[in-house]
Amino acid sequence: AFSVVSKLLSQRKLDLLDELVSAEVLQVLKEKISSLPDSHRDALAADIDAIMYTTEGDVRIYYDDDGMKFVSILMRFWYLNGANLPDEVPGETKVFQIVFGDESTKEKRHLLTANYEFQREFTEGAKPDWTITRIEHPRLLE
């Protein structure tokens, strides 16, 4: 889901995210994506083969006021991307670069991070669909 959603964000195909992303998050993304420089938009895309590491950041089970049961999982992803980003980005944060090949054919890739929160209702009889309720690409979608 992370790879598919990140590619759709990069391609500005937000209308295809209706069933995957919550309406609130989608509205915020529409505002942010429209003002992104092309290099930052390109850096959002994470090919499935370029995902280097994933870990869960937070797992919660909770009930709302009506007694409906939910599970929320925050996932953190580290992925390589070849977008043309500056070496230094605002906020004085270093973007890691990895160089493949020799000096004449070197290919520069950035090691980027993203946080996606997935939520599903677990009340008896609820549809087994997961929804993305938070999307963060630090230094890209700010």
Automatic annotation (TrEMBL):
One of its GO terms (cellular component) is mitochondrial inner membrane. GO terms for molecular function: ribosome binding. One of its GO terms (biological process) is protein insertion into mitochondrial inner membrane from matrix. This is MAIP1 protein. It comes from Brachypteracias leptosomus (short-legged ground-roller). The lineage of its organism: Eukaryota, Metazoa, Chordata, Craniata, Vertebrata. The gene is Maip1.
